[in-house]
Write a structure and sequence with these properties.
Blueprint (H helix, E strand, L loop, with lengths): L2 E9 L6 H12 L5 E9 L6 H11 L3 E6 L5 H10 L5 E4 L11 H9 L5 E6 L6 H17 L12 E4 H7 L9 H6 L5 E6 L14 H14 L3 H30 L7 H33 L7 E5 L10 E2 L9
Parallel strand pairs: 1-2, 1-4, 2-3, 5-7, 8-9
Antiparallel strand pairs: 3-8, 4-6, 5-6
């Protein structure tokens, strides 16, 4: 029996590249006769015609499957949707823009197949992205090391593979604000990076990950899988209160010893502004936690599937499956 590989690809503004990515996957997998594939593409409500391209590809090959979101939910939600319908022994997620070096697939899978780890991720020698994203990635990596226990040297990238049991555990998370790194590292610590060269995009478009989306993902990391930020402000508040008490005692003693010492207006204002800002920031962070709890209690969806193609009908899949024989190819 052949080993089945499931490829999950979140799609957004990739009508020019997605077919090349899929063809490359098929070509690489065909190098080994004991492996088979399924490719699950998730259209994250893309503004271009990528879903029409996927419809045509699905009509030509039943192993290519498509999920169509009703609204844009972000790449992490799209990946989790693809994971839910993946049947492979090993599941690989990658981008739709040709940057992920698919020919390195076997190097990515070897540590998992040899049971050296449960998850592997690409580790690029040089990240081909804007400077602000490189800085943001470094900050994000440092913070995630503190919050979710990710090793500092490990960068979870957009080209990764995992054993089936890891994915089965991850998809149990059905709440909004998913964060893939947190889900992985709360499931297993056996994660290994594989060095490789990242490629340039296959089109002339810029990344779909804007600063707003990157910041939203960063907030998801802060608030979804750790209470460390709240504990941090507990510590800061305790230290500030202690400093305030010591300062107050010192000023009282100084005034008793030397009655001519004027009360410091400037220092008082500075302390009030600093403490006021700190308190407001802490309240805002607490509000973020409470707001997300409220939204989760109201059962906000992680994603909304409009329709699917070549996805097996399941009791846990209430969406309709498109009859591709009635769809005109593009």
């Amino acid at each position: 029996m052949k080993t089945l590989l499931s490829f999950v690809i979140p799609c957004y503004r990739s009508e020019e590249t997605i077919e090349r990515v899929i063809n490359e996957i098929i070509s690489v997998v065909s190098e080994r006769e004991d492996y088979d594939y399924e490719i699950i593409c998730v259209n994250d409500c893309s503004p271009d015609n990528v879903y029409e391209v996927l419809t045509s590809l699905c009509a030509a090959d039943k192993k290519i499957k498509a999920i169509n979101f009703a609204k844009n939910m972000g790449s992490h939600a799209a990946i989790l949707a693809g994971f839910k319908y993946a049947n492979g022994d090993y599941i690989i997620n990658l981008d739709d823009d040709m940057q992920c070096p698919v020919p390195e697939l076997w190097h990515l899978l070897d540590p998992i197949i040899n049971d050296e780890c449960d998850v592997t991720t690409a580790n690029y020698y040089v990240k081909k992205q804007a400077l602000w994203k490189n800085i943001g990635s470094s900050i994000n990596n440092t913070v995630s090391s503190r919050l979710i226990g990710k090793p500092k040297h490990l960068h979870y990238e957009n080209f990764a593979a995992a054993k089936r049991f890891v994915i089965k555990e991850i998809i149990k998370y059905d709440k909004p604000y998913p964060y893939l790194d947190g889900l992985i590292f709360r499931t297993t610590k056996r994660v290994k990076s594989v060095m490789m060269e990242e490629r340039k995009r296959g089109d002339n478009k810029t990344t779909g990950y804007s600063f707003k989306k990157s910041f939203t993902l960063f907030v998801n990391q802060l608030t979804s899988f750790s209470v460390v930020p709240l504990r941090f402000f507990t510590v800061i508040g305790t230290i500030a209160a202690l400093i305030g008490f010591i300062t107050g005692v010192f000023m009282i003693i100084q005034k008793i010893v030397d009655p001519s010492v004027p009360i410091g207006y400037t220092s008082t204002v500075v302390i009030q502004l600093f403490m006021g800002g700190l308190i407001l920031f802490g309240i805002g962070l607490l509000g973020e936690y409470v707001g997300r709890i409220y939204i989760s209690i109201n059962k906000a969806p992680q994603y909304v599937i409009k329709d699917t193609i070549n996805i097996e009908n399941r009791t846990d899949n209430p969406t309709r499956d498109v009859n591709i024989s009635k769809v005109e190819p593009v």
